[in-house]
Amino acid sequence: MYNSSCWAVPKIFLEKLDVVHRRHLRTILNIKYPGVISNKNLYKRCNAEPLSEKVARSRWRMLGHVLRGPIDGPAFSSLIFAINTLDLPGRRGRPQSNLFSLIVHDLCKRNLYLNNIFDLHYLRNLSYDKRYWRKLQ
After folding, report:
1. Which of 41, 65, 92, 100 is least surrounded by CB atoms within 10 angstroms?
2. For residues 97 and 19, what is the distance between their CA atoms, to the nearest angstrom?
3. Cβ-based neighbour number of residue 100 at 10 Å
4. How far is CA 87 from its chain centroid?
5. 3-class DSSP state for residue 85?
6. Angstrom distance (rounded) from CA 108 to CA 125
7. What is the pTM assigned to this prediction?
8. Which of 118, 109, 128, 108 is nearest to 65 (CA)?
9. pLDDT 10s digit of each residue in the chain, 137 long?
């Protein structure tokens, strides 16, 4: 899935993507309505995984690349800008889903936080240990 590391899609759309993927896998295996197979067994039988997990894993790898990149690069600079503007009042209405908010959510699942510049430098130091970074995946 090309460039899926930059997707900032809501969870509902990722679930719909998984549903379509499972439907295609069932079609490939020629499993029709009366026949029932659980999603877990379907993925195991096809040696596949949900596409939403692939998207999350590619987003995690992309974050590692950005953190290990040059400090004056555009990707790292945009992370610094996003952190510096966290305290500013946002727009009215429901918060938009963006890549930064998804990255912060992914970090919270791993008990890591990105609230200030010190957290960013801590994550940068963690990302240099690639084995540990892959374990967090």
Report:
1. 92
2. 21
3. 17
4. 24
5. coil
6. 17
7. 0.84
8. 128
9. 777 778 888 889 999 999 999 999 999 999 888 888 899 999 999 999 999 999 989 999 999 999 999 999 999 999 999 888 877 777 788 877 788 888 998 899 999 998 889 999 999 999 999 899 898 88
